[in-house]
Structure formats: structure tokens, C-alpha cells
């Protein structure tokens, strides 16, 4: 990553490999250095041969995510040959063509009226009310998992990722959607296989997931219940418009995958951050009312998602004074924005009292603009409940390894622990 820096601040000829292990193991330092050198830098990612611009500054990230001149679907760029882009992405991941549509036409792949339509139909059933009504159930699931942990012999080392951070969100999202208990372990395995980015595996997993969801939809059509899947089947707007079967399958896939992998690592990263900053944990224990703010700050400081999907410029434009050509891809590096000193004082410092108002969030860990995370309220709620209950039940909770030995799973655009070994007492 060393190359000449022009006097304009632009980094000439540099291409940052998003799969570079050094960058993936220190994305905070890496993207902060890039951010301070230039508004954008070229990036590369396997299977993508369109030029990608990595945007790292707070205002620029927000611009990319909210300016209509950027689209998620390259087909909306005038004159762009998208077949090539899509086919390459499908091939690179070993996805069988018959399953590609489930991954290519989701809510994150569409723009404008198509996006508003999908978002509106899912929002009819995935409401703020449904999320807040779920809170007691999230608390019960959490307590049951903690009961299981409490039964481990004193002094045993427990992996909190495996025993707590994963099971909580997968249980919650599966209950919400209506995925039966017996298939949940299978979903967790599928989720793991998908994020591992192993091409051979990817296709098989998608085929299995699609078949499973199709069967669930049939079952719910015959026996409706109060779950979200039944809500999706029934959802329609004033004009009688409703989700097609393909859209429903894609939506369930998105919700279950987006809903547990990410939240698990918010809990894992968040607990690790508090254990390595005991003064912040003590503050939170003294003042439990700080919890919503604490979760906002943890999302900023160690949120699990570091980059958004690619956006495509529909016309020639400029970001931070640098030119972006029509059809070029831009990736919003949330990690760069969340550590931008132009927006946050002393961004490297974890400070759970930082948010001026717990209802407002200025970090971009859940994205920004039209595609802002649909599940943010649920994820925040799970984070709050999980961290509060864990610290209440186990006041002596401590890391069982030196913080520098905490192992990360290195994935581009993602920040996650492979394991979180702790002692409960
Ligand atoms: C979108 C992060 C939890 C469902 C997004 C985006 C981000 C994000 C950054 C925007 C991506 C982009 O613009 O390219 C996170 C994080 C989570 C989390 C960090 C946990 C800590 C959830 C949960 C659900 C969910 C629990 C569902 C139950 C979605 C959906 C979208 C989305 C459906 C697409 C929205 C749209 O395109 O309109 N998420 N998410 N997420 N998220 Fe989340």
C-alpha cells in the first residue's frame, strides 16, 4: 500500500486490495490513514473488474449513500453493460444460475420505485411496534442462554461467541420470521458457510436455503400464524400490490442472514470492548440508563459492518474534488466515516456517554439514506438486552486471554471475533 502521494492529496495509481490481511486485521488504522491522504482511493475485490472507489470521509460516505445520482443496481446506469458485471459476480461465487435471482434482486439490489415498493411491503409487517413488543421475548431468550452459561463449572473458559452472541440473534430472528426450532442450527451453519466466501460451498447453501424457504411459505399459506412470514404473505398495499414468491424468498433470506450474523458480532465486539475498557463497563453498571447511548457508541467504535454494498455513479461527478466517471463503482467505508475526526472528537476513544441524544445516531454503522438498515431497532434492542443481562448476571466476567490474543475472523468489510473466551466468575 505504498505509492506516491500527489501534492493534490490524491494517491496516484494506488489500488488497495480489500482482501489484504494487514488491512483486514487493522481496518481502523488502515482506512484512517487512507482517509487522511485522499478523499478516495481505488480498491480491488475478487470477481469485480469495474473500477471501485473507496470513500472514507464522513460527509462523503453520507453523500454516496443518500445522493440519487448513485444507484445500487448497475442496470440503472445509462448505457452500462450489466450482464457482464452480474455474470462475473455469480461465477465468482459459484452460484447456480437458477438461484442467482434470489441474490441479485433483493431489497439492497434495487433502486427508486422498485426499492420503495419492497421497503413499504416489508415495513407493513416488520413494524417498530412488532420490534418493541418482542422485547420481553428477547429478554427471556437471553436469560435462558445465561442460565445455560451459569451451569458451566466455575473457572471453565466459555466462548461467548458460540454460546451467547450467535444463539441469541438467530433464535430471535427465526422466531420473528417463523422458522421452526428444529431448522435453526441448520440456518446458523448456512450463515457461517455464506460469510466464509468459499465459492464451491456458496451455491449449494443457497440452493438448500431457497428450497427450505419455499417449503415454509407453502406451510404458512396452509396454516397462517402471527409470524412475519405470514405477514409477508398477506402484505399488500392500497393498490393490491403484493410480494411475489421470489421476492418473498429473497426477503426471508436477507432478513435471516442480515439479522443474525451482524447482530451476533455487535454483541461479541461490544462485550469485548467493554471488558477491555473496564472504566466504561463500570460506568454502565453504575448507570444502566446509559445503555442506549452505549450501544450507539459501540456501533460506532466496533460495529460489525465496515462497508456497504457498491453504489454506481449514474453520471460523471466529483467526490471530495476527485472525479468519478459514470458507471464506476463506489464503496462507502463506514469504518473510515465512524473514525473521522471531522465528525467525532477523539474518534479512537471509546466513550459510552458520547451521544448527545440517545435517540439520535450520528454514526453510520447501520448505513444511511434510503437503504438504512431495516433491522437497526431490533439489532440495537438485542445489543442492549444482551449486554445488560450479561453484565448483571456475571459481575466478575473477564477475558480468559490477553486482549491482543483475541482472534478475528478476517473478512473484507466486516469486523468480527472468531472466539470470545471468557471466565464467568
Ligand atoms: C441494511 C448493518 C442488523 C436487515 C443494512 C445496511 C447496513 C446494515 C450497513 C446498509 C447496507 C447498504 O446500504 O449497502 C447492520 C448491522 C446490524 C444489522 C451492523 C447489526 C448490528 C440487521 C437486522 C436485520 C437487518 C437485525 C433484520 C432483521 C437489513 C435489511 C437491509 C439492511 C433488510 C436492507 C435495507 C434496504 O435496502 O432498504 N444493514 N444490520 N439488519 N439491513 Fe441491517
Q: Based on CA inertia axes, which overall geometry fits?
A: globular
Q: How many distinct folded domains?
A: 1
Ligand types: protoporphyrin IX containing FE
Q: N-to-C terminal Cα separation, in Å?
A: 44 Å
CATH class: Mainly Alpha
The proportion of strand residues reads 5-15%
CATH superfamily caption: Cytochrome P450
Average predicted local confidence, pLDDT? 90
Q: Biggest β-sheet, characterized?
A: 6 strands, mixed
| Secondary structure category | alpha+beta
Strand order of the largest sheet: 1-2-3-9-6-4
Quickly give the CATH architecture.
Orthogonal Bundle
The CATH topology is given as: Cytochrome p450
> Topology as H/E string?
EHHEEHEHHHHHEHHHHHHHHEEEEHHEE
How many alpha or pi helices? 18
Describe the 3D structure.
By secondary structure, the chain is an alpha+beta fold. It has a single domain, classed as Cytochrome p450 (Orthogonal Bundle). 50% of the residues lie in helices and 11% in strands. The protein is built from 18 helices and eleven strands. It has a six-stranded mixed beta sheet, sandwiched between helices. Helix 11 runs antiparallel to helix 12. The longest helix is centred in the middle third of the chain and has 31 residues. It is globular. The N terminus is likely disordered. The structure holds protoporphyrin IX containing FE. The site of protoporphyrin IX containing FE (HEM) has 26 residues, from helix 14, strand 6 and helix 18. InterPro entries: Cyt_P450, Cyt_P450_B, Cyt_P450_CS, Cyt_P450_sf. It comes from Planotetraspora phitsanulokensis. Belongs to the cytochrome P450 family.
Amino acid at each position: 500500500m505504498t505509492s506516491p502521494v500527489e501534492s493534490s492529496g490524491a494517491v496516484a495509481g494506488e489500488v488497495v486490495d480489500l482482501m489484504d490481511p494487514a488491512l483486514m486485521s487493522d481496518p481502523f488504522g488502515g482506512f484512517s490513514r487512507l482517509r487522511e491522504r485522499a478523499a478516495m482511493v481505488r480498491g480491488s475485490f475478487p470477481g469485480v473488474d469495474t473500477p471501485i472507489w473507496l470513500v472514507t470521509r464522513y460527509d462523503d460516505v453520507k453523500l454516496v449513500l443518500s445522493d440519487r445520482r448513485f444507484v445500487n443496481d448497475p442496470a440503472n446506469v445509462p448505457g452500462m453493460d450489466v450482464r457482464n458485471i452480474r455474470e462475473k459476480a455469480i461465477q465468482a461465487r459459484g452460484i447456480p444460475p437458477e438461484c442467482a435471482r434470489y441474490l441479485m434482486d433483493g431489497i439492497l439490489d434495487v433502486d427508486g420505485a422498485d426499492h420503495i415498493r419492497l421497503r413499504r411491503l416489508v415495513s407493513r409487517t416488520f413494524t417498530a411496534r412488532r420490534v418493541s413488543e418482542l422485547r420481553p421475548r428477547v429478554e427471556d431468550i437471553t436469560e435462558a442462554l445465561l442460565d445455560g452459561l451459569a451451569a458451566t463449572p466455575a473457572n471453565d473458559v466459555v466462548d461467548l461467541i458460540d454460546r451467547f452472541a450467535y444463539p441469541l440473534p438467530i433464535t430471535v430472528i427465526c422466531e420473528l420470521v417463523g422458522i421452526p426450532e428444529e431448522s435453526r442450527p441448520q440456518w446458523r451453519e448456512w450463515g457461517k458457510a455464506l460469510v466464509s466466501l468459499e465459492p464451491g460451498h456458496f451455491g449449494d447453501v443457497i440452493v438448500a436455503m431457497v428450497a427450505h424457504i419455499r417449503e415454509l411459505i407453502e406451510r404458512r399459506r396452509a396454516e397462517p400464524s402471527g409470524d412475519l412470514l405470514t405477514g409477508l404473505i398477506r402484505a399488500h398495499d392500497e393498490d393490491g400490490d403484493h410480494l411475489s414468491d421470489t421476492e418473498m424468498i429473497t426477503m426471508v433470506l436477507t432478513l435471516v442472514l442480515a439479522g443474525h450474523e451482524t447482530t451476533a458480532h455487535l454483541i461479541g465486539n461490544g462485550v469485548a470492548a467493554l471488558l477491555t475498557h473496564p472504566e466504561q463497563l463500570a460506568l454502565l453498571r453504575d448507570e444502566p440508563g446509559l445503555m442506549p447511548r452505549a450501544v450507539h457508541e459501540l456501533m460506532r467504535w466496533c460495529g460489525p459492518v465496515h462497508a456497504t454494498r457498491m453504489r454506481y455513479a449514474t453520471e460523471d461527478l466529483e467526490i471530495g474534488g476527485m472525479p468519478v466517471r459514470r458507471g464506476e463503482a463506489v464503496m462507502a467505508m463506514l469504518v473510515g466515516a465512524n473514525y473521522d475526526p471531522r465528525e467525532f472528537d477523539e474518534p479512537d476513544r471509546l466513550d459510552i456517554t458520547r451521544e448527545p441524544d440517545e435517540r439520535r445516531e450520528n454514526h453510520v454503522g447501520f448505513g444511511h439514506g434510503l437503504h438504512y438498515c431495516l433491522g437497526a431497532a431490533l439489532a440495537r434492542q438485542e445489543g442492549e438486552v444482551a449486554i445488560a443481562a450479561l453484565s448483571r448476571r456475571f459481575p466478575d466476567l473477564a477475558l480468559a486471554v490477553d486482549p491482543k490474543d483475541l482472534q478475528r475472523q478476517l473478512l473484507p468489510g466486516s469486523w468480527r471475533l472468531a472466539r470470545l473466551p471468557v471466565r464467568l466468575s
